[in-house]
Write a structure and sequence with these properties.
By secondary structure, the chain is an alpha/beta fold. It has 4 helices and 5 strands, in the order E-H-E-H-E-H-E-H-E.
Length: about 140
């Protein structure tokens, strides 16, 4: 059985991609994994001395968001796993996909061209289907 991976952030707009992933996993009877990547570059300028604390706080926030996503999935009858990864978002997603039997990677329609480009690279180089999901509202 293949895996549907849903890359998710902290924002309310991530709910659209999470909901799409849940419905696809439910319809296709596939394993669902929500991934959240802690990438300190997303914080902006930050003193190096604060990096460890920021990493812990962002991981905590990501864990909370993953648990909420897993709960919403559970209420739709889908068991989902949550994973926190560290580092560059694109590199972490690609590494996860390379190491697992992923059939589909769902990403939110990105405002960041790097994420869009990497999603296309996963599709083209790794042969994994990639679906971009527009945010509601």
């Amino acid at each position: 059985m293949g895996i549907i991976v849903c890359a998710t952030g902290n924002g309310v707009k991530s709910r659209s991609v999470q909901a799409a992933a849940v419905e696809l996993a439910r319809a296709q009877q596939k394993r669902l994994v929500f991934l959240h990547v802690v990438d300190l570059r997303q914080v902006g300028e930050l003193e190096e001395a604060l990096w460890p604390a920021a990493r812990v706080e962002l991981a905590w926030l990501g864990e909370a968001m993953l648990r909420l996503a897993q709960d919403r999935a559970r209420r739709r009858g889908v068991a989902a796993e949550g994973k926190i990864l560290q580092g560059d978002v694109c590199a972490a997603l690609e590494e996860y996909v390379r190491g697992h039997a992923v059939d589909l990677l769902l990403l939110g329609v990105a405002t960041n061209e790097e994420i869009t480009r990497d999603g296309r690279r996963v599709r083209d180089e790794l042969g994994v289907a990639v679906q971009f999901v527009a945010a509601d509202g």
